[in-house]
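Re: the 496-residue chain
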Amino acid sequence: MFSIEYLLDRIDYSIVLGSPAGNVSEVVIDSRKVTKDCLFICIEGFKFDAHTVADKVIHDGASVLVIQKELSEDAMDMARQNDVTLIRVDDTRYAMAFISAAFYGHPADSMKIIGITGTKGKTTTSYLVKSALEEAGIKTGLIGSIETIIGDEHIPSINTTPESFVLQGYFKKMLDAGITTVVMEVASQGLKLYRTQGFTFELGIFTNLEPDHIGPNEHESFEEYIECKGRLFKQCRYGIVNADDPHLLKVIKGHTCDIYTYGFNKDADLWADNVELVRTPGQPGLEFDAHGDVNAHILIPTPGMFGAYNALCAASICHYFGISDGVIADALSKAHVKGRTEIIKTPYPFTLMIDYAHNAMSLESLLKSLREYRPGRLIVLFGCGGNRSRDRRFGMGEVAGRYADLAVITSDNPRDEDPQAIINDIKEGLIPTGGKYVEIINRIEAIRYVIENGKRNDMIVLAGKGHEDYQEIKGVKYPMDERIIVREIIRKLENE
């Protein structure tokens, strides 16, 4: 049993009904999983408001409800009849973070949590850091957009940053497994919805910022997006930030932590020069010299300048943990991230990679970086998700037309929309550029097309899916792992 007063200890609240002096059996946030004598938190979501089913929750046995607005008369009558305690807070999501931390025994207080935020680079940097920390013997957990890693257990992710109740559960499981450090991606939505309240980050990391995630159910404006990102630097002890990003000062405005910088500016605490492209056939990479608090020659198996920034960021974090320059360089040279400029080995004389670039900004960054390797042709295969902003389609079409020698337009999670209608939107952005393109609505057929038509020294990017292993159509997620698809296509071509 859990003391109600203990669970509410770190939040402001008022009593609407009953008393907080008793105990509850557990904390529940899903109205379908209510148990006898539990504390239930009424969350108002984008599609469902748990306040509307308060009477059902009470009927099913909840003895305490945490609410942020008035309940119906029927629910109030039922609460009185069943001696239910009603706790009123300003925001139940905010309260949930602290209640969840208390419920699991404040596990984050016994570990060092590294939170990485930014428009790009969160996933790659988190894996680089995990690899380097473990190379140095630091047992590290990971929470991110691809998966949560707890020792040998890999749990596929639903959200980049889980709901606070789920997050605290992961922290507890990690602590019990002997993990001392956790590196996690912190999405702007996670910060906006208070998923990372209830504990203090050891490190807050900022990679970069560009307009993204602005629209219905996301952020109202770029200014709100910046403000939400900046919340991390009011929740951490120490901040490590990209000194070259033009939005840096806005992001860290009002910060309450010490700030450490990295970048290509010599005024940064850690900076790099002598950047060289590594044009190894089938495995493009990058090398540079790091100076300042880390002095090492670093080689990374990742193409593009964004890879150098990610590596500098990871090196800064490792330096904070006292890891030697040699171990940092060695770990970065071996780190690979699923679905982020992931090279797929083939028997053909071209480079094939999978990348998660799924908006105009990330696609432009990727294609401009690959252009620097002077490929025979730069070919990009991509689509756009259904039930999302049409502006994203126009933008990706324009970028592909401007930077690729050939764009292969196909499907990418059409969801409830007509895939051909999405392709038509993409073409509206692409055609005015004069760029070459073909359209193949079936993604598997499109992948076969680029493999069959690839030439020596071409660079071919399968963009948009990255780590995803499904295609979402009409509410159903069909299996689609592009690594498996590539292998099967190559096998069929060889048999033919």
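The radius of gyration is 25 Å.
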